[in-house]
From TrEMBL:
Protein name listed in UniProt: histidine kinase
Keyword Transmembrane helix: yes
Organism of provenance: Buttiauxella brennerae ATCC 51605
GO molecular function: phosphorelay sensor kinase activity
Keywords: Membrane, Phosphoprotein, Transferase, Transmembrane, Transmembrane helix
EC number: 2.7.13.3
Length: 437
């Protein structure tokens, strides 16, 4: 039943598209016919103005009517009292009035050739709602209608034609072929899905339970090692430096380092709490996060590394950027990993730099992190987000994999590429209306 419904929908959509296209072609063809008819009638009517200007009292009536049989009468002096430019007489005739004189025009005779050869179901010429010439049945119920005023200062008649689509001319054979095509396509796709489903079930039943359990345990363990290693290393560095400063009686500087150690210790506590919550639930608490403040905090946490590597950090996150609904710790981990990788990539660079830029679109926030390093190799561009892939000797290869996971949990995306003059660029896109993945 479902396959029949899908076939019916696909056939109706594709067949409907063909029908719409064919009707559009018919409409365009008849529109072209209307334009030709309008042009010819306009040219024909404009001749009356020329004739009216050339006639005089000495003109031979027989010669005039022989050459212009549609001119029934004329007057070469202005009518008094003045009449309107057009004065309808009996059906199909009207006076053209101007300062040069007046002409009584027999419209059916004037347009006999055009009316006889026109292809529309209904044809009419009128002036201010008064019909002068009509042909065919009334066109009020016809599907297509074209109407336009004649571009003539003395004969601004209104030309209107109507017609209906010619359903006999639709490509019915092509529509039948489309139905056959979709039936064959659905049949083969169904056979492919059945075969693939059976093969996947056989593989998944053998490995799913064990792999899922091992993967979860490995992800948690590897993530803990990677995330705890950096703050512990920072605490060790801060503490050792503080010891030397205390021995040198520089307690003020030592206090700043100890404060930084306290911040890193709190960060470890928050990471452990997050991993503990991960064991019990996949849900994460979302709250408004100021990206500029989080970036400044990450820069402070990596202050020693930035100073040691002589890295110039450029912050282009506008203060007016709206808050992002996210996990504050998750955003901090993302930015921490990106900045740390950028610093590590420029260890051999004399003038290293990192630039972060953020902008807002109608539906998302776009964040880019660029650096002045050597950029990513072709292999790194393909595998940078794969677990355990690293270009550093002492790296675990989990930082960018975890970063991608955190971004995806916020319904976002991350893309790695190289900038033209060297260096890597990571582009992160977060939707403004965040929902948990």
């Amino acid at each position: 039943m479902l396959k029949a419904l899908i076939w019916l929908i696909l056939t109706a959509l594709s067949g409907g598209g063909v029908v719409v296209y064919a009707l559009h072609q018919q409409y365009e063809e008849q529109s072209a016919e209307f334009r030709i008819l309008y042009r010819d009638i306009t040219v024909k009517l404009s001749q009356n103005d020329v004739i009216l200007a050339l006639l005089s009292n000495s003109s031979d009536p027989k010669v005039v009517q022989q050459k212009f049989p549609y001119i029934l009468r004329w007057q070469t002096s202005p009518h008094y009292p003045p009449r309107p430019d057009i004065n309808p007489a009996r059906a199909g005739t009207y006076w053209i009035n101007s300062p040069q004189g007046s002409l009584l025009i027999d419209l059916p005779t004037l347009l006999a050739d055009f009316v006889r050869t026109q292809k529309f179901r209904h044809f009419s010429l009128s002036w201010q709602g008064t019909p002068l010439l009509t042909q065919g049945e009334g066109g009020d119920k016809d599907g297509w209608r074209w109407e336009k005023s004649i571009a003539s200062p003395t004969q601004p008649l209104n030309l209107a034609v109507t017609n209906n689509p010619d359903w006999r001319m639709l490509p019915w054979f092509l529509i039948i072929l489309l139905g056959v095509f979709w039936a064959v396509a659905i049949y083969f796709y169904n056979q492919y899905q059945v075969t693939r489903h059976q093969r996947n079930i056989a593989d998944l039943r053998a490995h799913f339970s064990e792999l899922a359990r091992l993967n979860a345990m490995g992800e948690i363990a590897a993530g803990m090692v990677h995330e705890l290693n950096q703050p512990l290393t920072a605490i060790l560095s801060y503490s050792q430096t503080a010891q030397r400063l205390i021995k040198q009686q520089q307690t003020d500087k030592a206090l700043l380092l100890l404060d930084a150690s306290v911040i890193q210790t709190k960060r470890i506590s928050a990471l452990l709490l997050a991993f503990r919550e991960k064991l019990h639930s996949d849900e994460q608490a979302l709250q408004p996060v100021n990206l500029r403040q989080v970036w400044e905090r990450v820069v402070m946490l990596l202050g020693n590394e930035i100073e040691r590597g002589k890295i110039n950090v450029i912050n282009q996150i506008p203060e007016s950027l709206p808050a992002l609904m996210a996990s504050p710790l998750g955003i901090e981990q993302i930015l921490h990993n990106l900045l740390n990788n950028a610093i590590q990539a420029q260890q051999q660079t004399e003038k290293g730099w990192v630039c972060v830029h953020a902008s807002q679109t109608a539906t998302s926030i776009i964040l880019t992190v660029k650096d002045g390093g050597p950029g990513l190799t072709d292999q790194a561009l393909e595998q940078v987000f794969m677990p355990f892939f690293t270009t550093r000797k002492d790296g675990l290869g989990l930082g960018m994999a975890l970063t991608e996971t955190l971004v995806q949990r916020l319904n976002g995306s991350i893309v790695a590429e190289n900038i033209p003059h060297g260096g890597a660029c990571f582009t992160l896109t977060f939707p403004l209306a965040q929902q948990e993945a």
